[in-house]
Amino acid sequence: MGYPRLIYLLEQIIFEGRDQIARDFLELGYSQSNKNLPLRFSSKLIEIASGKILAKAEKIATRQGLILNNNIIKESREHDYIVISILPEEQNLLRALPFISCSIMSAKLDEDLTPQTISAAAILNPLTNQFYWTDTDNQARENFRKISTSKVVEINQASSLELNSANIELCWLASGKIDCLEISYNNFLDIAAAELIARKAGAISLIDKNNKTIKLAANQELFSCLK
After folding, report:
1. pLDDT (tens place) for every residue of the chain, 227 residues total
2. C-alpha Rg value of the chain to the nearest Å
3. For residues 196 and 105, is the Cβ–Cβ distance under 8 A?
4. 192-223 b/e with 16+ CB inside 10 Å = b?
């Protein structure tokens, strides 16, 4: 089995900065003894990787607009965009914790840059090579393996983890590693791809745009137990 064409193109874009992130992450790990490790060092890898990914996207996504880290790089009159988010997640970087996410999706956006339709979405953890994706076949996958949410229905048996990475948390819920989540976001574009993957895997999602929070559960029974 190969990736659908659109997912293959998204993969080509988002994998471009993977090695740079992995190398710099190792460098951060070696520097853990330095109590004065500057934040700018941890964000450097994001800057370099973003540049590589953007260059790849500009070559591949010639017919679509481009948004990188919430900045419009190329506008689209048809509101058809490739949206890329490489989140700093500095708390994880500074502690050499392997929870970092690169997010990408192909979507129609309205004038407020809110997703109207998403035709394909993917999340990459460049440190573990876990690649989560979904497209119009209405399935969610980790690499090539189909994933689905857990079957836990009792709230006292449900698990939830905070990984300082909303996208990875959403993908872990999609793959049944955790059962429920409540996360906050600054910009929905940063997590829209992962939220779609979670829903395609069977999660129930409730978005509160006023408070910029999302509640998710693995199934309807568990969701009804959330406050």
Report:
1. 578 999 999 999 999 999 988 887 777 766 655 555 556 666 677 888 899 999 999 999 999 999 999 999 999 999 999 999 987 787 787 777 889 899 999 999 999 899 999 999 999 999 999 999 999 777 899 999 999 999 999 999 999 999 999 999 999 999 999 999 999 999 999 999 999 999 999 999 999 999 999 999 999 999 999 87
2. 17
3. yes
4. bbbbbbbbbbbbbbebeeeeeebbbbbbeebb
The vertex-72 CA angle with 70 and 77, nearest 5°, equals 130
pTM: 0.93
Two structure tokens written together for 187: 């910009």
Distances, alpha carbon 154 to alpha carbons 113, 151, 175, in Å:
37, 9, 18
Alpha helices for 31-174 (secondary structure H): 39-60, 90-94, 166-174
Nearest to 217 by CA among 208, 206, 209: 206
Q: Report angle CA 174, 64, 49 to the nearest 5 degrees.
A: 60
In angstroms, rounded to a whole number, what is the distance separating the alpha carbons of residues 208 and 64? 29
Residues 6+ apart with CB under 8 A from 5: none
Smallest Cα–Cα separation from 19: which of 141, 80, 102, 82? Answer: 102
